[in-house]
Amino acid sequence: MLRRLPKLLRLVGGGAAAPAEAGTTTGACRRALTADAKQGAHSVLDEVAQARLKRIKSQLEATGELPVEPPRGGVWSAIRLIWRTALLGTAAVSATAGYYTYAYTSDELRKILKETRADLKPDDFGTKMWCDGMARYLLFRINMEQRIKDFTDPSTDKLLPELPPQLRGNVITLVLDLDDLLVWKEWTRNKGWSIYKRPGAADFLLELGQYFEVVVYTDEPATYTDPILNKLDPHRIVPYRLYRTDTQYHNGHHVRDLAKLNRDLSHVLFISAKPEAWEFQPENTLKLRPWKGETGDTGLIDLIPFLQFLATHRVKDVRDVVRSYDGVEDIPAAFKARLAEAAAHQRQQKRGLLAAPR
After folding, report:
1. What is the mean pLDDT of the chain?
2. Is the pLDDT reported for residue 1 higher than 50?
3. Which candidate in 150, 179, 203, 297 is catalytic?
4. C-alpha span between 354 and 104 (Å, rounded)
């Protein structure tokens, strides 16, 4: 057929076509016929493959190995739309609840809700819906926090054993926080968690163990605390260690409750760099700046003379001393300045006593 096609084309064109034109026409026809043949072959193969896949899918659905797809209609589209809307709504509610959980305490939310309801206008339906939703969330949160509190509160009101009678009133119980005071922890993508010892931490414990009853009171579990203290205090200068299970859970924080130490609070001194740690007894706490891994830090070593002075002079109530330094950022420097001032005042008094009368 292809061999006869040029002759037929010449006959149709009157026999006047040039050989070059005949060759061009022949090539175009061949390409067209080849393309049609390939397309037809692919169409047949596609139909065969689709039929085979359909037959295999039907067999799998019949045996239960492949779940039957629901029909694609208006009802199923509506169901999928409702399902997606419910998922998005749940995610939005969860995000909102998470924000209010971490941004505000229960007491703060209760105060905000009370003030919002006091200013609520009758036609403000959006604010009314927010108040109703917040009231339900607050009720759920208070109940949940109470359940957590029942599990997390200390199992006893006496965390430490009785102090020997000869030491009562004569020794101060020095309570130390762990993180941001003795050590600092940091998380990085390459190394994970890394724990750094503060400069002078071991010497600090070793020196103060001679003057105080030392207690480390942290909001971390024992599995985290004990390996650190075993390295900081290999000689067990610190006789007592209190962990997260010994803290009081309050407003989302693990607070150190000094009232449960079984000690007279007039002779209990707490040193910490976390505001949430001293929430119950701020009057017993020396509030320091947190240590965040700065090299060359001498904060603990500089604090030793102040604490030695406090222990050797047997103050009646450590809360009076804490009150006198409350708000002071650099307690060691302020202590040195006060000592210098007291020494100058004593020298002036001696000169007055030795001076000849006029």
Report:
1. 81
2. no
3. 179
4. 64
Span 223-244, average pLDDT: 94
Cα dist from 166 to 163, 170, 172, 175, whole Å: 8, 8, 13, 20
Q: How far apart are the first and last CA of the chain?
A: 149
Per-residue pLDDT, 70? 54
- In the residue annotation, 179 being an active-site residue is answered as yes
**Residue 33: pLDDT over 50:** no
pLDDT of residue 348: 81
Query: What pLDDT is stored for residue 297 in this prediction?
Result: 94
CB 309 within 8 A of CB 331: no
DSSP 282: G
Which residue, chain included where needed, has tokens 């706490």? 285
Q: State how beta strands 173-176 and 213-217 pair.
A: parallel
Active site residue 177: yes
Buried b vs exposed e over 286-296: b needs ≥16 C-beta within 10 Å?
A: bbbeebeeeee
- At 3, give phi and psi (nearest 5°): -65, -35
Contact 39, 32 (CB under 8 A): no
pLDDT > 70? residue 69: no
The CA distance from 320 to 236, in Å, is 30
- Domains of the chain (ranges, CATH numbers): 1-32 (no CATH), 74-152 (no CATH), 170-348 (3.40.50.1000)
Q: Helix (H, G, I), strand (E, B), or coil: what is residue 242?
A: strand
Catalytic residue among 36, 107, 119, 177: 177
Confidence check: pLDDT of 17 > 50: no
For 348, the token pair is 């002036």
Helices (H) and strands (E) counted in the chain, each on its own, are 10, 9
Higher pLDDT, 236 or 118: 236
Rg of the chain's alpha carbons, rounded to an integer? Answer: 41
Could you tell me the CA-to-CA distances from 72 to 55, 160, 250 in Å, in that order?
20, 69, 53
- For range 334-350, the mean pLDDT: 86
| DSSP secondary structure letters along 117-167 | HHT--TT-HHHHHHHHHHHHHHHHHHHHHHHHHHHHS-S-S--SPPPPGGG
* Bigger pLDDT: 180 vs 31: 180
Q: Structure tokens of 15?
A: 């026999």
